[in-house]
Amino acid sequence: MMGLTGCHIFSGMDFMGGGFLFYGIITLLIFIAIVYLFNDHQNSHRQNSALDILDREYAQGKISDADYAKRKENLKK
Predict the structure, then answer these.
(1) What is the dihedral of CA 44, 48, 51, 55, to 10 degrees?
(2) In whole angstroms, what is the distance from residue 51 CA to residue 40 CA?
(3) What highest taxon heads this organism's lineage (predicted)?
(4) Are the CB atoms for 46 and 64 separated by under 8 Å?
């Protein structure tokens, strides 16, 4: 029959032995990664949306060729 120490996967990484800090850091890193990916996705969508608006205005004849090219170059920066 196995003792209690033989059943631990991380052997010593329980909450009293520093495991709380370890799991806290892992949780924090996962949270930061999710926030970063979510913000990156929003920024790219916002930029595509601005390009879509610019294309629509150009197609409707609201802006000139030179103005369209200048604005498009500024948005791609």
Answers:
(1) 170
(2) 17
(3) Bacteria
(4) no
The pair of structure tokens assigned to 76 is 């791609």
pLDDT digits (tens, 9 = 90+) for 58-72: 999 999 999 999 999
Whose CA is closest to 58, among 47, 49, 66? 66
User: What separation in angstroms does the CA of 17 have from each of 24, 25, 47?
Assistant: 13, 15, 48
| DSSP 8-state code for residue 5 | G
Q: Kindly report whether the global pTM for this prediction surpasses the value 0.85.
A: no
Per DSSP, 63 falls in state S
Looking at the chain, how many residues does it have? 77
Buried b (16+ CB within 10 A) or exposed e, 21-39: eeeeeeeeeeeeeeeeeee
